[in-house]
Amino acid sequence: MQLQKNISLKPYNTFGIDVPAEYLLPVDDTDLLAQISEDASLPQRRHVLGGGSNILLTKPVEGLVLQNRLKGISVDREDKEHVWVKVSSGEIWHSFVLHAIENHWAGIENLALIPGTVGAAPMQNIGAYGVEARETIDSVAGWHWEEKEFVTYSSAACRFGYRDSIFKHELRDKLFISSVTFRLNKKPNYNTSYGAIEQELQKMGVQELSIKAIADAVISIRSSKLPDPKQIGNAGSFFKNPTITIEHFELLQTNYPHIPSYPVSETMVKIPAGWLIEQCGWKGYRRDDTGVHEKQALVLVNYGKATGAEIWNLSGEILRSVMERFGIELEREVQVW
Fold first, then answer.
1. Does residue 31 surpass a pLDDT of 70?
2. Which 8-state DSSP code applies to residue 161?
3. Measured in Å, how far apart are the chain's first and last C-alpha atoms?
4. Where are the domains of the chain?
5. Phi, psi of 156, rounded to the nearest 5 degrees
């Protein structure tokens, strides 16, 4: 074991927050998980760190931080229409998307350039441009700390919701996700209707649609709207898009006739959180080294030396302003440590 003590987590979170971990242990072999379970000298409080792209560190992290470095991609099985691909949870998500495209496996091309590791895909049920990870996830395997064995959960057992899953609730801190098996398509079912994908494809001069073309369009759109964490600290979208009743939406329309929305059901609609935040005047806001991105109001940023507590406090101010103006309660998407 390469156990390290009192190590700064600044290089391991995309916000670039400088807080120490009491202990840091890289995990590059699943056999190590059983050893950790049996080692009474190690802290029993455990935290799993993947790409660090969806966390906000607000204080020193007590206990053991397990840095997920599990690697490997293999074909589990296939039939005429699908291929089941088992991916280790420490693989970089975008690298897996590119790998799938190279092998002509369709289904996740709309999720290109989402930061983080594969292990975060089921936990967050990551999604973008009309596609969610749950549409392709067949099963999730992981080491259960209490049962001290590997357990596999079917897609149904994962209880996926909007940016949500069982791994954020009943199984929070109880499971180290070791691998995810995806069922991908051999024949593409293109999804270009969401967002600006069709416009971007036209701008790119694409004559023949392909999963690579869609991924390239998504990469171009995301790159133009979202800041690169290597250039400015951020964790992508900080807030979830809220869902409200039709009645509430129609009431808001009287004062905001151009309010954007997406139907969820016959009684509910989804409102872009970025639009709500922008209407409250937060887009481009900056206070010392904490702020809201100038191009995307959903993204909170660290301009250099912001603390996690400062970013958390700013998010609270944004929540209150949206509630006061629109009567809508936003929910933070980012996990807080």
1. yes
2. B
3. 24
4. 4-68, 73-185, 233-336
5. -65, -40
d(CA 150, CA 145): 9
Q: How confident is the model at residue 272 (pLDDT cuts 50, 70, 90)?
A: very high
Task: Give the residue numbers annotated as catalytic, written as ranges.
Answer: 163, 237, 333
Under CATH, which architecture does the 73-185 domain have?
A: 2-Layer Sandwich (3.30)
Query: Which fold is adopted by the domain 233-336?
Result: 3.90.78
What fold, for 4-68?
A: 3.30.43
Q: pTM score, two decimals?
A: 0.89
Please give the pLDDT value at position 195. 67
- Alpha-carbon separation of residue 121 from 37, 196, 221, 250, 334 (angstroms): 25, 23, 21, 34, 14
The pLDDT tens digits of the residues spanning 43-69 come to: 999 999 999 999 999 999 999 999 999
Q: CB neighbours of 303 closer than 8 A, spacing ≥ 6?
A: 232, 233, 286, 288, 289, 290, 291
With contact defined as beta carbons under 8 Å apart, do 37 and 148 qualify? yes
